[in-house]
Write a structure and sequence with these properties.
InterPro entries: P-loop_NTPase, Thymidylate_kin-like_dom, Thymidylate_kin_CS, Thymidylate_kinase
Number of strands: 5
Strand content: 5-15%
Protein name: Thymidylate kinase
Strand order of the largest sheet: 2-3-1-4-5
Bound molecules: 2'-deoxyguanosine-5'-monophosphate, sodium ion
EC number: 2.7.4.9
GO molecular function, one term: ATP binding
Shape: globular
Order of helices and strands: EHEHHHEHHEHHEH
Family: Belongs to the thymidylate kinase family.
Radius of gyration: 17 Å
């Protein structure tokens, strides 16, 4: 049984957190659960490395190219902008999107480099506002212990400490914070509860705000 009526819109669910917080595997579990429940749902992630802009970002993250901090910031933002109309289309047609990283990553990672926070926020204005932001909370030290970091540019303890500080300053009361050091099953359960709750609200006709 499909639980959504054709007139109700999908929810924009964003997962945020430090590298190695478990976001990506939790997004996958959440997607599988909602899909099996009969919801129209898609799993997205930013950066989307498949576009032309995404390939420039990917090369930068792999340390294969160098870019000015402002320039890469704008590319990350452009990567979200190039998906905006499709995102709106999906949501309006009733598909819920689970998005692994969004504008908060943009602001948290770039402001951690010392860029002005208001400057960092500016290119994000006009992107669709999430219905729910879930922050998977883990200390930078604990995250670093998890199977070690890969070779990508930002996966270093000292930098992740700065990112954690930036995220903390961005958090507001609308964020749902989940302790990412709980068992995988417990995180999954808490995430499901938060998301199902949000989806009910969206389906009651809450507008798609910006
Ligand atoms: P991921 O594919 O989720 O591992 O993300 C790749 C890396 O890029 C990760 O260290 C987080 C970082 N990142 C994600 N989005 C942004 C963004 O918008 N701006 C900046 N500066 N970094 C970002
Ligand atoms: Na990563
Ligand atoms: Na990730």
């Amino acid at each position: 049984e499909n639980k959504e009526s054709s007139s109700s819109r999908g929810a924009l669910i964003v997962l945020e957190g430090l590298d190695r917080c478990g976001k990506t595997s939790q997004s996958g579990k959440l997607y599988k659960y909602l899909d099996e429940q009969g919801h129209s749902v898609e799993s997205w992630r930013f950066p989307d490395r498949n576009t032309g802009v995404g390939q420039m970002i990917s090369s930068y993250l792999a340390n294969k190219s160098q870019l000015d901090d402002h320039a890469i910031h704008l590319l990350f933002s452009a990567n979200r902008w190039e998906k905006r109309s499709l995102m709106e289309e999906k949501l309006k047609s009733g598909t819920t999107l689970i998005v692994d990283r969004y504008s908060y990553s943009g602001v948290a990672f770039s402001s951690a480099k010392g860029l002005d926070i208001e400057w960092c926020k500016a290119p994000e204005i006009g992107l669709l506002a999430p219905d729910l932001v879930v922050y998977l909370d883990i200390s930078p030290e604990k995250a670093a212990e998890r199977g070690g970091y890969g070779d990508e540019r930002y996966e270093q303890l000292e930098f992740q400490k700065k990112v954690a500080g930036s995220y903390l300053s961005l958090r507001d009361s609308s964020w749902k914070v989940i302790d990412a050091t709980l068992s995988i099953e417990d995180v999954e359960k808490k995430l499901r509860e938060a998301v199902l709750d949000c989806m009910m609200t969206c389906h009651k006709g809450k507008p798609l705000s910006q």
